Amino acid sequence: MSTDSMFVHKMWVEHEISKMVTAKTVPFPMLSDAGGKVGEVYGVYDPDAGVDVRGRFLIDPDGVIQGFEVLAPPVGRNVSETIRQIQAFQLVRESKGTQATPSGWSKGKPVLAPGPDLVGHVWEKWNVKQACD
């Protein structure tokens, strides 16, 4: 979502996305917040510039914000990290909290079982080399 119009979004998909991926589509909806109302709600609208700053909000099916990141306009977001975090939140949700994903976790890699016995022993349980292979 951005304060850009649907016409700017269309041009972005046709001219920018096509250089990054083979398809001329994005796997998510692109929305226009032309008046900045949604950006105001999430605290990312800059009224002086009339634009939303770079913000990303991961909202679960219950409407609860599970993660967010706000960056100054000159710095882009990491789409791969966003996807990794979405997969991690999905796994944790599906496990009903019986699994946790440590830093650097990626889909298919080992997870942790949260609990009192894990406190102070994460590095014994979490094999970073194995997780990154």
3D architecture notes:
There is one protein chain. The protein has 133 residues and is an alpha+beta fold. It folds into two domains: 6-77, Glutaredoxin (3-Layer(aba) Sandwich), CATH 3.40.30.10; 80-132, no CATH class. 35% of the residues lie in helices and 13% in strands. The chain contains five helices and four strands; from the N terminus they run H-H-E-E-E-E-H-H-H. The strands form two sheets. Strands 1-2 form a two-stranded antiparallel ribbon. Strands 3-4 form a two-stranded antiparallel sheet. It is elongated, with a radius of gyration of 18 Å. The protein starts with 5 loop residues before the first helix and ends with a helix. The model has no long low-confidence stretch (mean pLDDT 80).
SSE order and pairing:
Elements: H1 6-20, H2 37-42, E1 45-46, E2 51-52, E3 54-59, E4 65-71, H3 79-94, H4 122-125, H5 128-132
Antiparallel strand pairs: 1-2, 3-4
Supply the key terms.
Glutaredoxin; two-stranded antiparallel sheet; 133 residues; 2 domains; 5 helices; 4 strands
Quantity of strands, as a count:
4
Q: End-to-end span in angstroms?
A: 35 Å
CATH H level of the largest domain: which superfamily? Glutaredoxin
**Low-confidence region ranges:** none
Structural class: alpha+beta
- Give me the oligomer status: single chain
Radius of gyration: 18 Å
Shape: elongated
What is the beta-strand fraction?
5-15%
Tell me about the biggest sheet? 2 strands, antiparallel
| CATH topology grouping of the largest domain | Glutaredoxin
CATH class of the largest domain: Alpha Beta
* Helical residue percent band: 25-40%
Task: Report the order of strands and helices.
Answer: HHEEEEHHH
Domains counted in the coordinates: how many? Answer: 2
The strands making up the biggest β-sheet line up spatially as 1-2
Q: Quickly count the helices.
A: 5
CATH-defined architecture of the largest domain: 3-Layer(aba) Sandwich
